[in-house]
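Notebook, bench 3.
Goal today: get a predicted structure for Histidine triad nucleotide-binding protein from Clostridium weizhouense so we can plan the truncation constructs. The sequence was checked against the plasmid map this morning, with no discrepancies at the termini. Length recorded as 114 residues. Pasting the sequence as submitted so the record is complete.
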Amino acid sequence: MGDCIFCKIIKGDIPSKKIYEDEFVYAFYDINPEAPTHFLVIPKEHIESVNMLNEKNINVISHIFKTIKKLAKELGISEKGYRIVNNCGEDGGQTVNHMHFHVLGGRNLKWPPG
């Protein structure tokens, strides 16, 4: 999608602090972190939200979660714990229409989140 900020980040048109990249996903630090460790993992394929998953693209979800597990360990947040957040749709708080998963750790995260 031409106007999608995450697609522009993946293409390198907008700078990001990349953590990881492979043929399916791109991971980078959030520009407004809510925890000492706060990064996003996004599919390289433009998928608007979880609601747009189908038989052709559903396998990206397992790859995203494998990537999150790997990065959480590498970044030292896996032992004490971390939170994975996906906002879906307007009422769910999704502000960028490209499916993405926030990973937050490095402090005690309260519930409910707000």
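The chain has one domain: 5-105. DSSP finds two helices and five strands in the chain.
Flagging this for group meeting.
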